[in-house]
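thought: fold this chain, then report.
action: predict
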Amino acid sequence: MTRLRRLCLVGIAGAVAGTAARIADPSGSTGALVFLATGLVLGELLVLRSENGATVPLSYAVMLVVASSFHAAEFAAAVAGAELIAAVLWFSDRESGSHVKTLVLRPVVAAATILAYDAVQSVLHHREQLAVVLAALAAAAAAQVAVDTGARRLLRLRLSVSRRARLAWMAIASSGVLMSIGYRGVGGEGKFGVWGPLLFSTPLLATWYAFERLDAATRAYHQTIESLAMAPEFGGIVPEGHSKRVAALSVAMAAELGVSASDTRDLEMAALLHHLGQVTLDEPEDPAQRVSAAEVAAVTGEMLREIKPLAAAGDIVAGEASAPRRRVAVQILRVASDYDDLTARDGNLPEVAMETLRSAPGYVYDAKVLSSLELVAARAPELEVEGADLNV
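observation:
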């Protein structure tokens, strides 16, 4: 079932259920709660996606509305029902395995949302003043960010702290606050009812559309990079899969060494393309000789620096990064590439390859980088799965 069909199905079912609930209980809030629960389900199907595939669902904004306007029991019922329906829709997907951990993540974030909101309201004596309500909503939104980030680390889900991810959280929080104020009002004023969330969800939906277009452009960019990375493999210059393996190793080692997200992205691009320049070089007349690694790095670095978005990757490939943090990236790429050459190309066992790298003179490889490789290589099966998911 396509996403559009799921959205239409949920929207129609929610409208029917909400209308029936309002007819059955005209003076109660059941109908509004059903409508908002429908918004939670729709928000699970619409997400803001960052560069590495990490997502922030629009349902977090609707959680703020429900948490600020209903009692804890009603909030729990709405979230549980919405997540159950979302789970059914997820598991109808052939790739449902990636959603299992999300069933743990969402309730934890929901609990943090209402606990933070109620805590601030209790401290400020539940005064119906704009400053008090805004403070409680801000605390709930901050709790969502903190708990989602922490839970993703524990559950080993994709995590992003990039500029796009920060913009996504800002859009969720600001829209959630506006939707909440529009629904509940403050001090009996400004209350729009269920029309409030609908009205103030417009900027959030516009943001979602912009993210979707940006994500499509990002995917096209990475697919182009991946195609270029395969050129040396098609030419028989490097073993099949060399670029992807080196990229996966490099990203994992960067995580062990605490390399920043932006530098890791540049390192990943450098790892994917570090042999590209070799396709432009003439093969030595003597088949027993090989083009020197230094010559390949210099040519590839020069090529990449001609493309502004890849200039930093070109510096890493050429080994000309002056900043200390860039020098770490240079060492990571060198170690990862040589390790893959020793294992995939020369057929050495991982233990033999590690011993060969460690036996080199101390000025060739950084000891900390070698240690990170040893840790990463120890979980090679897990690395292979993660490498397949890299957004490359």
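thought: worth noting. The two ends are 26 Å apart (CA to CA).
final: tokens above.
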